[in-house]
Recover the amino acids of this structure.
């Protein structure tokens, strides 16, 4: 009997009908393509078991002059600098009280402490640190009070509660309780982690919980808490998207990680609000996008300002420095700026611009590259060399000397199952080891990122799948790509498993004709071509090959036969009958890695009906 080679085109295509995609792949998960053939994704392991408070949406790695490695991590709750796998909270402070302004009240048998502080401005989930407090009596000692606490409830504008590490054994309340020298230091208010559409009566989460219950950080119509960051030498420049700009000086940490300070406290002419901050690597200017003008406080979302060269603390333009500004002339707001090796690409809601260093007296020049484009969100674009890739509102784009839509054969699948309300959670990253650009996004029925779509620029193909990741940075300073999932960070492309658990991976083809479907065909024998290289030595090296049969294009698959293939399988007996056939390969075992070649099947004609 003749053998037919099952040879499929690389990449996925879901834009045409299943039958039109004969000899093509249509669905997969945890799969990539290399040299035209599918193989399993690399695995991941915890970067550290230490948990982060909140959901990370910004990662940035850099080194200090003394060769220490740092990682900036921004969540809706706080901002951290990681060193030696330990997270240090450097969240800026918004308020420091005078001594004695905050007082405490404890109730016998309860660990809940009530704080009275007039117009405290705190919300649920904020953090406050006390110092100078005195023992209240019983077990609520000064050591219990004088530390960082998370605010549990906010009954009034003048009171809030937190949970102490001990249960009070006596009631104690009144003026001055906790001592007359207590100082309360409040960190920035917590931000929103999930956007709820609408702001009117009945919108969002109206009616949640019981009457009078504490609000959460989920708010109707609010902006997602996002951070932007870049290092200026060994120091860190960062900002809350559409809010304050901050500076963390590594040289003055003196063994501790003190909170970052506002940039304007170091230079009164510096921006106080911005959409994004960046340090231009080529010419060493600190740049603020969508910021307030010099001498003003109102944000202009099209204004770009930069500091003097080699000085992130000199923002007033003079004849003796290179500080300056310009206004983008198209669009209503800058959404994201991305630095390539030659220029800074600024993407507004409707246009793309190139910002290039031209030297004194103008320092930077601006050139509009295109109009009529869109961008999905503040983290939707990523630079790879001199090219920039980004996700728009309904398509993908590339800038590689010119701006153009990026053909995408899975476009409808991605945008038809997309949660637009959570669109600002889209995060673009690169995986340079495999020539991949990856977009992490939220599917229609989810509230958090649970999907990915990849463009492989080496293979010029697309593929997608499921994964719960909220931020990503490529390898470089770090040995492996680093991604955030939940309250943890993971090293990716490390091993073949899901942090010690088995990873399911599969790929499935569209129906493939045999001789244009003129005859019914019997498939009688499968000769697999699969490699289990790089599997662990203890893994059960096996994959499930499933042949699915179809009679007519509109009938769908009507039958299937499966065979378990191991690293020693030469052939498997199968029984399938139809006009066209689909192939699915799946592995679910611990430690299993695989890549597919060109399997063959034995065929026999079986009449025309």
């Amino acid at each position: 009997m003749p053998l037919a080679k099952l040879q499929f085109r690389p990449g996925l295509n879901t834009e045409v009908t299943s039958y039109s995609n004969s000899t093509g792949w249509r669905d997969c998960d945890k799969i990539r393509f290399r040299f035209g053939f599918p193989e399993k994704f690399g695995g991941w392991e915890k970067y550290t078991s230490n948990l982060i408070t909140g959901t990370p949406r910004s990662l940035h790695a850099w080194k200090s002059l003394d060769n220490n490695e740092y990682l900036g991590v921004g969540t809706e709750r706080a901002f951290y600098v990681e060193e030696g796998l330990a997270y240090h909270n450097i969240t800026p402070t918004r308020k420091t009280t005078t001594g004695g302004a905050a007082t405490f009240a404890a109730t016998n048998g309860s660990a809940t402490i009530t704080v009275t502080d007039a117009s405290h401005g705190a919300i649920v989930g904020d953090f406050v640190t006390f110092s100078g407090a005195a023992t209240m009596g019983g077990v609520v000692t000064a050591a219990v009070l004088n530390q960082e606490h998370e605010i549990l409830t906010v009954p009034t504008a003048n009171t809030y509660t937190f949970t102490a590490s001990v249960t009070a054994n006596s009631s104690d309340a009144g003026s001055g309780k906790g001592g007359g020298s207590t100082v309360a230091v409040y960190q920035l208010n917590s931000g929103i982690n999930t956007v709820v559409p609408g702001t009117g009566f009945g919108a969002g989460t109206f009616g949640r919980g019981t009457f009078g219950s504490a609000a959460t950080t989920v708010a109707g119509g609010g902006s997602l808490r996002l951070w932007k960051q870049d290092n200026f030498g060994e120091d860190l420049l960062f900002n809350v998207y559409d809010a304050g700009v901050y500076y963390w000086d590594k040289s003055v940490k003196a063994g501790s990680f003190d909170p970052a300070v506002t940039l304007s406290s170091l230079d009164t002419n510096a921006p106080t609000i911005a959409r994004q901050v960046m340090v231009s690597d080529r010419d060493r200017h600190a740049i603020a996008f969508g910021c307030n003008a010099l001498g003003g406080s109102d944000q202009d979302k099209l204004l770009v300002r930069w500091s003097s060269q080699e000085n992130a603390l000199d923002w007033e333009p003079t004849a003796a420095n290179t500080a300056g500004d310009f206004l983008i002339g198209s669009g209503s707001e800058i959404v994201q700026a991305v630095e390539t090796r030659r220029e800074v690409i600024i993407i507004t809601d409707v246009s793309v611009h190139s910002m290039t260093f031209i030297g004194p007296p103008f320092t930077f020049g601006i050139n509009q590259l295109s109009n009529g484009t869109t961008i999905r969100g503040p983290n939707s674009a990523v630079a790879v060399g001199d090219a920039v890739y980004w996700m728009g509102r309904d398509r993908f784009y590339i800038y590689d000397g010119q701006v153009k839509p990026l053909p995408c054969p899975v476009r409808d699948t991605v945008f038809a199952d997309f949660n637009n309300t959570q669109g600002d959670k889209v995060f673009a990253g690169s995986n340079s080891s495999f020539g991949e650009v990856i977009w992490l996004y939220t599917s229609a029925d989810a509230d958090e990122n649970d999907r990915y779509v990849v463009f492989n620029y080496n293979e010029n193909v697309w593929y997608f799948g499921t994964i719960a990741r909220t931020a990503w940075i490529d390898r470089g300073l770090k040995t492996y790509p680093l991604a955030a999932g939940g309250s943890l960070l993971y090293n990716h492309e490390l091993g073949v498993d899901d942090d010690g658990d088995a990873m399911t991976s599969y790929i499935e083809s569209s129906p493939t004709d045999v001789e244009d479907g003129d005859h019914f065909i019997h498939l009688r024998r499968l000769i697999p071509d699969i490699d289990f290289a790089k599997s662990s030595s203890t893994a059960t090296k096996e994959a499930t090959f499933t042949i699915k049969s179809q009679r007519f294009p509109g009938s769908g698959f009507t039958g299937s036969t499966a065979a378990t293939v191991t690293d020693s399988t030469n052939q498997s007996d199968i029984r399938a009958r139809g006009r066209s056939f689909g192939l699915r390969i799946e592995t679910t075992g611990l430690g299993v890695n695989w890549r597919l070649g060109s399997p063959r099947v034995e065929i026999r004609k079986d009449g025309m009906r």
User: Anything to note?
Assistant: The longest strand covers residues 148-156. The domain at 93-187 is CATH 2.40.30.20 (Elongation Factor Tu (Ef-tu); domain 3).
